[in-house]
Write a structure and sequence with these properties.
2 copies of one chain form a homodimer. The first copy, chain A, is of the alpha/beta class. In chain A, 51% of the residues lie in helices and 9% in strands. Chain A is built from 11 helices and 7 strands. In chain A, the strands form 2 sheets. A 5-stranded parallel β-sheet of chain A has the order 2-1-5-6-7, with helices on both faces. In chain A, strands 3-4 form a two-stranded antiparallel ribbon. In chain A, α1 packs antiparallel against α2 and α3 crosses α10. Chain A is globular and about 65 Å long. Chains A and B meet through α1, α2, α8 and α11 of A and α1, α2, α8 and α11 of B.
């Protein structure tokens, strides 16, 4: 795929969906740099579709889940942030900043273990300021049960001993496996009905590029909170109820479009 | 991207979403063979997302639109089927069969005119039995107005003189342009709210891999119908009303999921 023609498609600066188009190109670049798997491009498209329905903005239900997620991460003994190709390609700097802020190491865990992919992701995270990236040394990895794919290999200093795992853009099998291992799972997923969204303890239905900076901002605030205050925030969060609020939002949006969508025909 | 590791991910035959996974791999293969643009993978993902919400089946509203679409194609003086990389990668044989059945030539029209892509698509269609593929001879192409991209170049024997254009998986700018040129436009789009879906005269909200064989089957039946019968089918179709029915279906589906989605947690 040596041809770089497609990398430089010009996007007018006033394009109404410029952010979405720029991140689309980050994902395509990621694939060319080995960071993103081909199937990761398709997954990105699924996300784009849901983000469109959510108005491409961070809604109240997302903020609600973010608050609980940050409190949960700050309460954890061994929090860890699981990183795959898509997340690394989209927002390496924000991952590093959040990791430092909540004292949770980054662990690379990918489905398509193509030769060189782990190193490509590691390099990207290190260029973004990341240090001590876990999941990169095959010789020390240990297996976890409940998962048949090559993702069962985890870092003994990371996911293996973790109590709280933050898994942005994760697949359902893995989320279920982590839950069955007794981990507390925090996910970011634009699809409120994905198996990951349903299985997670705290599901942030939002675009990861918007979520991470907000998490860091809230973490800086919550760091001054007492444990009891943080526990209260976590306890008051109800993931099922929150996802149902997302679905109500989607229903409202689609109902509105039944007339509004056709207005473009009369301009 | 010489590494072919990812092409042979094993999918268990009883996987509940095996069809979706197999076509995902067709799209990835298509990219490796130059047929599909990188952005085409992301577009495929958006489609997958909507197909999931539609239950991954051809619903009544789709059949209703297919009937009108086939009648419209059979009534046309110069029908043409516009083919892009994704459609060619997903179902080349079905395109050729439909083309022969309704006497509408296939015209290649792509957004990302990477070197060799038109020829790769042409080859794929010819291997599937296609003959006289239009849109392949740059020296005879003519420009149409209303479109600024390189897709303004169309074949003088195809889209240029057409009255009815069938545009599966098309982008909104082009659909709008064709409408403004006075063409009757038939689209297949899994997103009922895309600009293509809204602008088209007849929008089939369904997965192209299911739609094309059904169109051919109905075309074989409708070929025996009198013109008046076909006209009646077209006249009785209301695209706005039909899309509103799609949206009602989606709302019903999401409402149902507010409880049902969580049942996986209690198995």
């Amino acid at each position: 795929m040596g041809d770089k023609e497609n990398n430089y498609v010009k996007i007018p600066k006033d394009h109404p969906r410029i952010t979405s188009l720029l991140y689309r190109h980050k994902i395509i670049e990621g694939m060319k740099n080995l960071v993103v798997a081909e199937a990761g491009l398709i997954a990105h498209g699924r996300g784009e579709c849901f983000d469109y329905i959510l108005g491409e903005k961070t809604n109240d239900f997302a903020i609600h889940a973010i608050n609980a997620a940050v409190a949960q991460l700050l309460l954890a003994q061994h929090p860890v942030i699981s990183v795959n190709g898509n997340v690394a390609a989209l927002c390496p700097e924000d991952l590093v900043i959040l990791s430092n802020t909540v004292n949770a190491p980054l662990e690379i865990n990918i489905f398509y273990r193509k030769k060189g992919r782990v190193n490509a992701i590691k390099k990207l995270l290190e260029e973004a300021g990341g240090k001590n990236i876990l999941g990169t040394d095959e010789s020390i990895m240990v297996e976890i049960e409940e998962l048949s794919s090559n993702r069962r290999n985890v870092d003994p200093k990371g996911i293996k001993i973790s109590d709280v795992v933050f898994i942005p853009l994760e697949d359902g099998d893995r989320t279920e496996a982590l839950k069955k291992l007794g981990k507390t799972v925090i996910s970011v997923d634009l699809n409120p009905l994905s198996r990951t969204a349903i299985w997670a303890d705290i599901t942030i239905v939002d675009n990861i590029i918007r979520t991470l900076p907000i998490m860091t901002k809230i973490a800086l605030k919550y760091k001054n909170y007492a444990k009891e205050q943080l526990k209260k925030i976590v306890d008051e969060f109800n993931n099922k109820k929150n996802i149902q609020n997302v679905l109500d939002f989607v229903i409202k949006y689609i109902n509105l479009q039944k007339e509004k969508a056709f207005s473009i025909l009369y301009k």
